[in-house]
Amino acid sequence: MSAVAETMDLSLYGCPMHYIKAREALGSVDAGQSLMFIVNNGEALKEIVASLSKDGHKCDVEEQETLTTTIRVTKKL
Question: Measuring CA to CA, how many Å separate 10 from each of 15, 22, 44, 62?
């Protein structure tokens, strides 16, 4: 598993800004590198995982809390 470059809190952003911020962050790391994103549960989580997966990135849930979920996103090779 690749080292995590950083953790970003996207829980303050609504749609589509949380996806735009995640996409920008992934643009600054090398292929195969991982970033952690904290996202609000519910629709925001579903949307960002679906969008990033559609872009070809690997998304894994790392930790679920009451209001947020932390996902590990590994940039596509």
Answer: 10, 8, 10, 15
